[in-house]
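Researcher: Quick sanity check before group meeting.
Model: Go ahead. Protein one:
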Amino acid sequence: MTLKSAFARTPTILIAALVAFPLCAWSQKAPQYTLTDLGSLGRNSFGSGVNSAGRVTGYADINMSSTEHAFLYSDGMMADLGALGGVQSRGLAINNAGQVTGMADVNLAYAHAFLYSKGTMRDLGTLGGPSSVGRAVNNAGEVTGESFITRNSDGVSYLHAFLYSQGKMRDLGTLDGGAYSIGHGINSAGEVTGEAATSTGATHAMLYSKGKMRDLGTLGGDTSTGVAINSAGEVAGTSATTAEFGERAFLYSKGKMRDLGALAGDDSSLSLSINSRGQVVGVSYSTAPQSPCCVQNPFLYTDGTMINLNTHIDPSDPLAPYVVLSEANGISDNGLIVATGVDSRTHFGHAYLLTPVKGRDCR
């Protein structure tokens, strides 16, 4: 399994939400969660992001077909967000105001980044090239992602990270004149993280802040990518290591990149989201030849420990005996998690909302 690129994957605080979903101090004991099956618009669904009010975005197949549409899950209902004139769309991130960004077809050939707000999907355009993708949105409605730029003199179109703010899409450039860049995460200060090619052709995690793009380095390997950034400027991402195979989730904080390890029995992990408390969620898996193919588990990294979320579902939850989660894709500032899993009774893959169980360890 290789470092997941932006195109292969395709990710705040309300007072009322804090009442509904209290913050939990989990240093004394590991958290437990209840499960909510978010359903689908057809058979399968995938959850990409969650906000502090428990609203979720992602994408789902519609009408029992392979066509996918972005959705917004709110108040127990999954709403189809449609597309931009084409047939398909994906919701990839959501902010606390319920604004969604992602990608939507504008015709049969190309998709554009969009911002869905107050019932309307708005086309954010491109940097001059044919297509773009919105990857993350902050609470001010600023969006980052990537867009093809106008074809260069060499006849090749390149992807560049962008920042969409105040109605305009701005090119964030690359690292040291490298060929491309991608924006994966944005925080309340408008700082962007993602990945960018260096002048040597390597792909490194980057942090764009105050008009400059900085190389965050790696965990010893050749490649890395930043996937999410919180209000404190901490970056969660994934990096190749000095090991022959595999990759590791990392947390970049105070100028240092820390290897978050992997779950017991695994050697590799991927970060997919971070919240304001520095909690990271993602996927852990094994690259060992003898390991079962394609088995992966969702993790939560909190208080210096990585836990398997499959072992922390409230055993009294009606879905607990049937649902196995495969990846945790988003975490809100108050600890809500959106994950993807399969119900053994239906064998469909659905998005699930994990809500912390209120107990003595919650305040």
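Researcher: Fine. The other one?
Model: Protein two, sequence then structure:
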Amino acid sequence: MEFRPNRQKPGRRRTWHPEDDAALDAPGRESVRAKGELSRKRTVIDKTAVGETDAGKLVEGRVIAVRGQFVDVNDGTRTWPCTVRRILRTRAISDRAPVVVGDRVSFAIIADEAGQLNEGVIEEVHPRRTELKRSDGRRTHVIAANVDQALIVSSIFEPRLKPHLIDRYLVAAHAGGLPCIICLTKADLDEENQADQFIELYESLGYTALKTSTKTGLNIDKLRELMKDKATLLAGQSGVGKSSLLNAIEPGLKRATAEVSAATEKGRHTTTTAEWLPLSFGGAAVDTPGIRALDVAMVPLNELELHFVEFPDRIAGCRFTNCSHIHEAGCAIKAAVEAGEIDEDRYRSYVELFLELSESQRQY
């Protein structure tokens, strides 16, 4: 295993100078040490692979909340406050966190200071079935894992609808194996039905899209039916009404809400950490903090075209096999845009993401 950067010895200070001439004449000392790739690695014996620890058999559960260094894990009977075994944190070199909401984990139950079995230590994270990721500089941040679908929430007004941000969420969800539902909130403010054209576009692409209003109750029952018996991740920028929507779907949740600034049309973060919330009608909702900008740098550049659902069936018609669909002649995608078969805003979203990924992947 690689050492984490904060486990490595710092390099020699470049400002170091000997204080007198005697130090310059001091005999040098030669040390022989390993060279090559293995010299900065360590060997780890993973005793958890056999399914037991010194405390006995491991218990399986689901992560329902991550609060800093502490993790809440539900085993189906009760919720255990847990810490994460250090070896798991050491393994998370490219990831921001080794454990996220929705993870299936195995943990050992240990005694607290009073001798009561009230705490746990997470020993193993099981493979993830699905996940929603975003890039965080050079690292990848998994927002949540093992959900059945993503509910991409955007308001029509206050703040205004941002189709390009929705396209980013669709790319991230598609890359993580998640089916998507597009939900436009605050329909009571859309007096001229401006969002109808947007909904028609995404329904023509095969997505489920609908307008909702927590004030009038529009389509709340329909949304509840779409979420029934499924684990649904709610994603969207701050202020679009994710918490208000959850309160309308499941009144007993009593999620905190806040008004959107009239000057900036930006919302305040009322949800500060992702949380797994069981629903009385079956299934669960994962409420996540609002994200104003979604970086999808974790998506390989040559796979971006596959995450725009209207592209794959047309790619074979491109003149060049490595067509970027931006500047090449004989591009079937550009021809479809010109013919009105692909929406121009969707194509602009693709170009924006392609250029962004080209730059970020060139840097790293």
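Researcher: One line on it for the slide.
Model: The first helix runs from residue 21 to 25.
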